[in-house]
Structure formats: C-alpha cells, structure tokens
Amino acid sequence: MVQRILSVLLLLTLLLGARTIVAQTESSPPASAGLARGRAAHLRYGINLSEWFAQVFDPKGYTKEHFEAWTTAQDIALIKEMGFDHVRLSVNPQPMFRHKQADRIPADYLGYLDAAVKMILDRGLAVIIDLHPDSDFKQKLVSDNEFVEQFADFWRALAQHYSTLDPNLVFFEVRDGYRWYGIQARLAAAIREGAPQHTIIAAGARWSDDDDLLFMEPLHDANVIYNFHFYEPHVFTHQGATWGENYWHSVKSLPYPSTPASAEKAAATVPEAEKRLAVVRYGLDHWNAARLDEEFDQVVAWAERWNVPVTCNEFGVYRKTANPQDRAAWISDVRTSLERHGIGWTMWDYSGGFAVVTKENGKPVPDELTVKALGRTMPKAVH
After folding, report:
1. Is 383 inside any structural domain?
2. Mean per-residue pLDDT for 11-15?
3. With the C-alpha atoms ordered 199, 205, 209, 213, is the resulting torsion angle positive or negative?
4. Residue 19's pLDDT is what?
5. What are the φ and ψ backbone dihedral angles of 336, each rounded to 5 degrees?
6. Same domain, 218 and 353
7. What's the pTM value of the predicted model, to 2 decimals?
8. 108 pLDDT exceeds 70?
9. 271 and 298 share a domain?
10. Which residue from 207, 204, 193, 211 is spatially nearest to 238, judged by alpha carbons?
C-alpha cells in the first residue's frame, strides 16, 4: 500500500514538473526565437520577381535564353535604386525535379538559379527563395505520400546547396496548402537538415491569406518567419482577371475606397445575380484604410500571442482593368497600414500583371503612381 502511494506521488510530481516545463516554454520562448525576428528586419520593403523561374508562359518554356533575358542585372539595379531591400524569387521546382532522384538537381538548371541569386546578392538585396510549383505538381502532393518524401529530398538538397550563403540575406519559403500542415512541417524539417542556420518562411494553408494564418499554430522551430498574402477584397484587386472566380473578368470600373453607390454601378456589368451581390457587398463593407487596419490588427494579435515575426509577401492589384488612381490608393493604404503595424512587405510583382515596372522594347520603365504608392523612390534617370 505504501509503495502504491509513493508511486502515485512520484507520478504526480512528474506531471506537475512537465506542466511547469510546458508553461515556461509557452511563456518564455527559446533565446533563438529572436534570431528570426532580427532577420525579418531585412524584409521590410520587397518586390516579387515573377515569370522568371516560375509562371513562365512562353511556349518554349524554361530555357537558357529566357533566364538570361527576362530579368537582367539592369532590373536588379533598378530594384535597388527604387529603394527595395529584398526580392522574393519564385521558383518552379518541376523543371529541375528528377523522379526518384529528387536530391540530384541538374547542374545546368542550378547554374541558372545560382547566377540569379548571385546577381541579387551582389546588389546588397536579400532574397527569399520561394518554391512556387504549378497545379499538377501541387496535385501530386495531395495524393502521393511518396512524392512528398521526394519533395522533401529536393528541398533538403536545395537548402544544403545554398547553406553557405549569408543566412541574414537568404531565406527559404515553403508554401501552398494541400494537406498542408503535415507537409509543411516535413519540408521545414528537410530544409533545417540542409541549412541549419537559415531562416524558414512558413504560411497558412489554402491560399496563405491572413485568415489562413490565424488558423495555424507555429512550427516547432524558433527560426521561422510567418507570412501571409493579402488581396482583400479580391473582387477589387482581381477585377478583369481571367483566373480564380469566373465572374471577375466581367467586373469593370470598381472603385476604391468602396461605397454602396459606386459598387451598385459597377455591379451592373456582372450578368449573374449572385455575383452581382458579391460586388454590391463590396460597397456595403466600406473598404477603406480603417477597414484594412482592422485586418492587420488581427494578424498582429496572432503574432503577439505566439511571439513570432510576420511578413506579408504578396499583395497587389491587377493592372488590366482597375483605375490607376484607385489601384494606387489601395496599394498605398495597404503598404502604410502594414508599416504602421510593424509588418514587412513584398509586393506582387515587378513586371508581370500587377507590376511596378512595365517593359517597353525590353527596357524597364517604373510606373510612378505605383512607386509612390509603395513609398519608394523614382530613379533619377526617369524623373
């Protein structure tokens, strides 16, 4: 009987001790947690380099000629001159992914990527290496556990390849949610094995929106920055787009900030009644600077709860249809609100459909409205 009592007391002591350790861990994060926060200071004002190593629409695909011509040293110099401090380099893994030998990345393709990373770092810019696969690649992650393991092999090899570069300036991002939380943890572990000192950027599931971020719990890794994308409300930021919601392509002249009267007028261009209602609701929601502040208040509250750094590495407005002044107003309000909340940002994108720069005969021409909305500086040569 005495022995049984002593055993129970010992078990209670162990449980209380474990609870104390858990409580201390939750209230006092490891000392290394400050490392990611410090490195996040290198990701304050950024731009996405799309359609270079991912989202390539040229029928010839991912060729040497494309890599050398799409984004050049002149582009990187211009990004630096406009006052950006980092770029997010989207990379489609599929062209360099070898089935059953994913850790053997083709040397020629890796050489093109090395040249791009070096060109960025040589200008004193930080770089986020963001693996950004196409839909068919993502679908394999949904259904094939072995493919997830191969992708982990690929990430481990890629991280190891760049592990000798300055960890204050080179970041690895895992993203896109399909069975995501388990997969993301697996890939983060592979990256950590390949590059023990570098900071990982992680996101919520689905589309990595701010509400997806609020749903997640942080990884068991202190050296992580958490990111979200912000395109709210999509009916404004994606008006005229031919992907996503089908009705977006029929939305025209939708203004920002939103009012009931202006939204009612724009809704008349949408043929389906329930989609017209979505446009009307945009007006009723009174999207403006104050409304954006409320969104980011929630993100900051989540970050403070978990004591982790956050960044917004995608936001922007599709150029094709939106009124340029309204587009600039939304970008300015989002950017200033993010900065007011202490959140670094990376706009989408440099020269694609949401661009800060247009290309005329291959020459980059900064859009002054967008540059100013981002609080950046117009280059002297184009003032």
Report:
1. no
2. 35
3. negative
4. 36
5. -70, -35
6. yes
7. 0.89
8. yes
9. no
10. 207
- Indicate the helix (H) or strand (E) that contains 18: helix 2-27
Mean pLDDT of 333-345: 98
Give me 344's structure tokens: 């670094």
User: Which amino acid makes up residue 75?
Assistant: D
> In the 3-class helix/strand/coil scheme, how is 70-112 assigned residue by residue?
HCCHHHHHHHHHCCCCEEEEEECCHHHCCCCCCCCCCHHHHHH
Do 56 and 104 lie in a common domain?
A: yes
Q: Are 134 and 266 part of one and the same domain?
A: no
* 379 assigned to some structural domain: no
Average pLDDT estimate for 372-377:
98
pLDDT over 50 at 5, yes or no: no
For residue 83, the tally of other CB atoms under 10 A from its CB is 14
Alpha carbons 201 and 190: distance in angstroms, whole number: 13
For residue 129, what are the β-bridge partners? 89, 172
Residue numbers of the domain that contains 253: 246-281
Average pLDDT value for residue range 299-322: 96
Q: Identify whether residues 365 and 258 lie together within a single domain.
A: no
Residue 291 has pLDDT above 80, yes or no: yes
Whether 134 contacts 56, CB under 8 Å: no
Contact 206/177 with Cβ under 8 angstroms? yes
> Domains in the chain: how many in total?
2
Same domain, 213 and 120: yes
Tokens of 268: 């008349």
Q: Looking at residues 275-287, what average pLDDT do you find?
A: 96
* Amino acid in the structure at residue 232: E
One-letter amino acid for residue 113 of the chain: L
Residues 173 and 322 placed together within one structural domain of the fold: yes
Please tell me whether residues 271 and 306 are part of one structural domain: no
**pLDDT, mean of residues 345-360:** 95
Please enumerate in sequence order all residues whose Cβ is within 8 A of that of 24, keeping only pairs 6 or more positions apart, or say none.
none
CATH number at residue 228: 3.20.20.80
Does a structural domain hold residue 171? Answer: yes
